[in-house]
């Protein structure tokens, strides 16, 4: 049972309960998605798919211990091709950990946008009991994650 009485949005859509009109929210989401460049325009080409597969073969596990299916850009590249291809900026992650990291850093679900340093707590910290620290050696060609218990 809803706690608040149904209300109308400013656009005159049918009554709704909750924080935002679902029709207006869906329209805003569709408009944002239409403005977003395609994955290939963002650099995720066949070359990326091949590099990603090789990286995941060398680094098959997420820091939480699950099978890694995503190559995360530790520092978001924001279109910077040099940072995009810098393997020391890559980290193997499972999809749930990557999704949690993205929500936490990019302001998903209404959260404020946050940056983050080199040290972080694994999104599955309760399960792993570990804080993860990124090795920052300039000679590194791939990301390395260490558990600190």
Automatic annotation (TrEMBL):
Gene Ontology terms for molecular function: endonuclease activity; hydrolase activity; nucleic acid binding; zinc ion binding
Domain HNH nuclease, first and last residues per copy? 50-99
Q: Where is the composition biased (Basic and acidic residues)?
A: 115-127
A Pfam cross-reference name: HNH
- Spell out the residue ranges making up region: Disordered: 105-131
Keyword annotations of the record? Endonuclease, Hydrolase, Nuclease
Q: Which Gene Ontology CC terms are recorded?
A: cytosol
What the record says about family reads:
Belongs to the HNH nuclease family.
What protein is this chain from? Answer: Putative HNH nuclease YajD
